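Dear H.,

Thanks for agreeing to be a second pair of eyes. The structure we're designing against is below in token form, covering all 158 positions.
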């Protein structure tokens, strides 16, 4: 029964991300869209993004994982989906060479329980003494937890 619940939840998360990605081309073609979200929701997004940026630049996987829900899903380039904190932490452990992260939110929305953001992220990494820059689109879904904090439940980048 638990396996079926996990499969249904994963399918629903995938459908939500797919729906956001399908609407993404029109959203991503716009610049700095004004979102119809409350100031509190916008502040939640900005705070989470600032914490994620700081933790990624420091290579602090523990702090990164504090921002993810226990049952989170991270979809990374190449079509791989990572489920749960253990798999996501292993991914970030292997990507600790990030020097700088910038994130710009193009669109955001949601309700009291779920907030989503669509945006662009640029990461500067250093491999063998050489800086390299990558820009990607992302869709991130935040869900309110039982303690009323928002955590990343789905994060998809291309």
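And this is the sequence the design step returned. I haven't edited it by hand at all.
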């Amino acid at each position: 029964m638990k396996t079926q619940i996990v499969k249904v939840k994963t399918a629903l998360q995938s459908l939500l991300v797919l729906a956001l990605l399908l609407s993404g081309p029109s959203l991503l073609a716009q610049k700095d869209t004004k979102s119809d979200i409350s100031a509190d929701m916008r502040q939640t997004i900005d705070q989470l993004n600032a914490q994620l940026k700081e933790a990624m630049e420091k290579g602090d996987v523990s702090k990164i994982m504090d921002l993810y829900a226990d049952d989170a899903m991270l979809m990374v380039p190449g079509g791989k989906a990572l489920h749960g904190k253990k798999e996501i932490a292993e991914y970030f452990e292997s990507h600790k060479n990030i020097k700088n992260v910038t994130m710009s939110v193009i669109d955001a929305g949601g309700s009291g329980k779920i907030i989503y953001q669509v945006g662009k992220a640029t990461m500067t990494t250093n491999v063998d003494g050489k800086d390299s820059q990558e820009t990607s689109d992302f869709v991130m879904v935040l869900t309110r937890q039982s303690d009323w904090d928002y955590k990343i439940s789905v994060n998809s980048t291309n």
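Two observations from my side: The CA atoms of residues 130 and 144 lie 40 Å apart. The domain at 2-157 is CATH 3.10.450.50 (Nuclear Transport Factor 2; Chain: A,).

Warmly,
E.
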